[in-house]
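Entry:
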Amino acid sequence: MTPNFEIKLISTQETLPLRKNILKPFLTEEECINPGDDFEDTFHFGLYHKRELVTVATFLQESHPELSAHYPYRLRGMATHSLFHGRGFGLSVMNHSMQFLKMRGCDLIWCNAREKAFGFYEKLGFLYSGNYFDLPRIGPHKVMYKLLIPK
C-alpha cells in the first residue's frame, strides 16, 4: 500500500505556522524560532498529506547535562495540525527522523516532553529522566530520551 503522505526536509520558516498554532499560540511566529534552528547540523522534517504540511519536527545537535551520549540530538517543536491527530503522522515523522539521525551517527535523542505527549513518546520507546518541571504558559514537562545506538 502506498503511503498517503510524504516526509521531507524543510526550512525553519516552514515549521513556524504549526509551532505557533499548536504549541505556542500566545507567541508570534517569529518568537517561535528556537536558538540553533538555522545551524548547519539542525534538521527540520515535515510531513505533507495531500500537499498540506501537517506535522513538523526539529532536531538540534545538543547534549543534555544528565544524559551521556557521543552524538546526541534534541527534538524541539514537534507539532501536528489538530485536524490530523491520531492518524499516525507524528509516529511516521519520528520513525523517519530517528532512522535519518541514526545513519548519521546520532546515538541519543532527547526532548522536554509535555505531559499530554508522554504516551506518544512511550510508544516510540522513549524513557523518562529526572523530575517534572513547569514551563510558564505551557505546563508540566519531563525530559524523555531514547538511545538509538546501544552503548
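Helices lie at 12-23, 89-103, 118-123.
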